[in-house]
Fold each of these.
Amino acid sequence: MTEATAESEPEDGGPADTGADTDTCAGTGTGASHRPIRVLLEMRPAFDGFAGIPQEVRLLFRGLSQLPHVRLAGLLQAANRMLARGLGGRERAPTSARRVKRLSDVVVSVRRDPPSGRLRRLNYRLRQAPVFARLFAPESFSVGTRLGDFTAPGFEDFLWRSLFAKTLDPDDRSSVTAADYHVCRPSWQTFHTVGDIERKFGRTARYPRLDTTGHDVFIGQTPYPGRVAPGTQLVIRYHDAIPLFMPHTIPDPVRHQAQHYHALAANVASGAWFSCVSEATRADLIRVFPEAEPRAVTIPNMIAPAYRAEDVPAAQVRGIVRTRLYEASGWLPTFDSAADKRDFYTASLPAEAPRYLLMVSTIEPRKNHLRLLAAWERLRIERPDLKLIVVGRAVCLAVGLAGGAQS
């Protein structure tokens, strides 16, 4: 496909306005344009580790980037950090050196650790104050928060390591780092805070608007605490309603439940579409907001191309389990000597191909590991050689799982 209009650099630092047409994709409607659909995808979860939503975001970005009728861009926004502004804004034609410095500032702001010491924290908050105050200005709710540009040449390694390397194959590196990226300076949590403050002065939470001008679709992960520009369709990738129906299983339930509900209510009211990961998730969404039913569809999570059946020697399985065991988890016995440890692993990891149940998830109450342990114990009545392998990172409220495993 060819684009109908050439891009021009925006004066306000937002995404380039590429001349949105009435129709968004070639071959649709009367007088359809010959340009791809322009999609902006929230990348915030991809900065995290190996959990499900970060993996899904990386795979979704890869999948969309391979569609010939989609022009994809990624939104860089931190969960709790204010980012540098990137390119654009008032500086119309920065020198090459200044351009590199501005992009490098974005990298530093993503990687910056929270300041330590009272004076440093105070200085950090003072620098954040003007950005935070502007989110309450009328322009923030009408025109929207301007997005800076982040161009990859020279910064491919940052994009690959920070966003994609934990999931994608190295063969995907060149394609995903060649995409366009934009920077939202205020954090995702700051957007939530603005909505909470606005809600205290009215009946509903009013969230800042992103200046998504030039994009046909914005895809946000989980309820997104923001709005989009006119002409941009908001799509929410909805993973679960656990903060609403099972708040007793999550850390900091008061804050998470409130933020989830009010952002979700605002997304529904704005006319967003919802791409739910399962029929159960879609049913929960409709149970809370019946009016969202016509705009809620089910699209299961993507599976990595590397996920396939393999014939692996039993010795390799044993080696992986043995070298990756987290011995400080509290799930394993205390050994009095190296010989005791060797004997334990020899008995627990038999030479023949092991039969096992595999659980991959973060280790926290909402994943229901205790129920899995109970089911495994029942299965072992008939299959005493059946092993249970738990893979995941222990997070808050994992209390009781180690005791359950030992008992």
Note: The CA atoms of residues 241 and 284 lie 6 Å apart.
Amino acid sequence: MFYRLLIYIPIIVLLVLIQSTTVRIFPNIHYQPDLITIAIVYLAHKEGKVAGQSTGFFSGILEDVLGLGPFGFHTLVRTVMGYTIGFTTNWRVTDSPLVALVLVVLGIVIQYFLYLLIGTVFSYPGIVISTFSLQSVWGALLTILFTPICFSFLSLLPFKRSSDKNMLERLKN
């Protein structure tokens, strides 16, 4: 786990920096895919709950330090999302693009639900309003569109594959 953690950290740092500085698809319209959500979903699905919450926590802290919201907001949302998606590690499914899309949609739904919950409980009207904005909808659609590309790239890295683990379990039985 320690070796793989050394691989996660630079990837998450790179994605947070890319996300916060340069990923604007259209120059005059501020729509962007959430590459960090894709990476957290991928790692949580491949590695499990601990890796999901760890990468979610680390990326959330980086986003909060960069000032992309109230301090602790992204940390909480991304940690809960990573932990929840980590429950899918033991699913006996193939690594198809459809599974990737379903998992990322699930991650986005969890993320937006937490945005609404936190925004409502702590009286952040800006968070509640921005969750239903056109920018959020287009951002979610772009995230879904970028999912197969990002999953293909991340599959080249040395992560444990859930299908390999399931295959080993089947061979033991």
Note: The radius of gyration is 16 Å.
Amino acid sequence: MSLPYSDGFFWFEPASGRRVAETTGSSDGAVLSLPLPVFSEDLAGRVEPVGEVDLRAPRLETDRGFTFTLAGEPDRAYAVETSEDLRGWQEWRRVMLPAGFAEVRDNPADRPAHFYRARLAE
């Protein structure tokens, strides 16, 4: 039985960060089926997270730095991880959220393109 997955899946052009589509997936509890929007070259997707942690307002700065807002439970530490292929993840930085959010900045110009995710630190 396939159940609708209520969170939005947002699709972006990786080079510009411009949102190009939103789709809704379905899950049987083990597999998530997700329709892809029409695209011509590269496509990056993001699940709108619900719950403990959220990466918000991603932006590419004029100096090629990358900044986003990490939001979660106040006074908790989160591990921000990066991956070049969405399969292998390495912890990049630990961030404490005294007020429930913090700005996080990376200077990815000196390394290959990569993805970010965050989890509650153990």
Note: The chain has a mean pLDDT of 79.
